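Database export, one record per block. Field names are fixed; values are copied verbatim from the stored entry.
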Amino acid sequence: MKPAHYVLFAALMALPVGSALLLGLPIALVAYLLISLATYWLYRHDKRQARQGRWRVPEKLLHAAALYGGWPGALIAQLRLRHKTRKLRFLMPFWGIVALHQMFWVYWLLPAELQLFN
């Protein structure tokens, strides 16, 4: 990975990590870690299958894993394995999922009077 990739990853992780710690939700960090490991494995498996011309992991499954909290693992896999980095039809939903997670943490950091569902 390039140094800029580390900066991007650190910037994107700052909000979830900081928010989880500030809100006293360390279990969220454990969940992100475990789901990210599984998601990274899915990407790695898909890359191997693609190289061998075998059955691939459906993109819907890759997106679902990212949505359930595995987006950090998906991002690392994309950058390290150079997998799923060119197909705009895949990347747009992926970055939407990342944005959704960022908005989730921003929402929970808002004062209670600004939260809609409190």
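Remark 1: Residues 20-114 form one domain.
Remark 2: The chain has a mean pLDDT of 94.
End of record.
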